[in-house]
Amino acid sequence: MDEAGRGPLAGPVVAAAVILCKPCPGGLNDSKKLTRLARAELEPKIRRRCAWGIGVVEVDEIDRLNIFGATMLAMTLAVSRLVDALGRDPDGVLIDGNLTPHGRRPEWRWPAVRAIVGGDAREKCIGAASILAKEHRDRVMREAAAAHPHYGWERNAGYGTAEHLEALRTYGPSPLHRRSFAPVAQSVAQMEMFA
Fold first, then answer.
1. Section 19-34 average pLDDT
2. How far apart, in Å, are the Cα atoms of 33 and each of 37, 121, 124, 146?
């Protein structure tokens, strides 16, 4: 399992859980180490040939729970959906990073879980999950860019680039901005000051 979207100022956090098929798609790696084209080619192969689940936590929940809590929830949802697709619980869960939802989310019921720092480059199943999570989230942000064109989300996926920060100062936050994140909260405060 891996997630995408912890750091952006806007949009959901997305987690994916994948059980690899045999033979697994070639070229799996940390999504950040792959080109956009390589990810786009691998995503449908993973979806077609492997068992997978996606968990999405929207902005209102991110602001309510905080980004860490929302990430733990997205991971829990992803494994739950994988279980639904697979028809049984996995024997274990490998997660990229240093923390897991075990003991942090009441819905988490899989005790055989292990966090692996750099796991998306070390374990092919985590690499596959990182590809699904990133591609899903990037697609959501490209679609959102059509309704909110000022922020450049089709290019920056909601991250705090100079272009995005300037648009936030100029136009203020959209409904998809995370108000609990400092640059967005500052933008809200600034807009209220001049209102």
1. 87
2. 12, 8, 13, 27
